[in-house]
Structure formats: C-alpha cells, structure tokens
Specification:
Keywords: Signal. By secondary structure, this protein is mainly alpha-helical. Helices cover 76% and strands 0% of the residues. The protein has one domain (2-41).
Length: 42
C-alpha cells in the first residue's frame, strides 16, 4: 500500500527539481543531478 505512494512522491519530487532547474537558467541544465535524473527516466 505504501510503495505506490512512495514511487509517486519520488516522481513528483523529481519533476519539481527538473522544473526548478529549468526555471533557474541554462547553468543548471548541465548539472550532474539533472543528468542523473534524465538517465533514470530513460
């Protein structure tokens, strides 16, 4: 019961991080965290 909620919350957190990164400019677009997130999405 708790696992789908955990996965969903992690997904929302990742989306928020990517959104904030894209809002803060091109500098953070090449950050290791963003690259790691994109690798995990694939």
């Amino acid at each position: 019961m708790e696992k789908p909620f955990l996965i969903l919350s992690l997904l929302m957190l990742a989306l928020n991080i990517v959104h904030v990164s894209s809002q803060s400019g091109k500098l953070s677009a090449s950050s290791p965290l963003r690259v790691m997130l994109e690798e995990n999405v694939r």
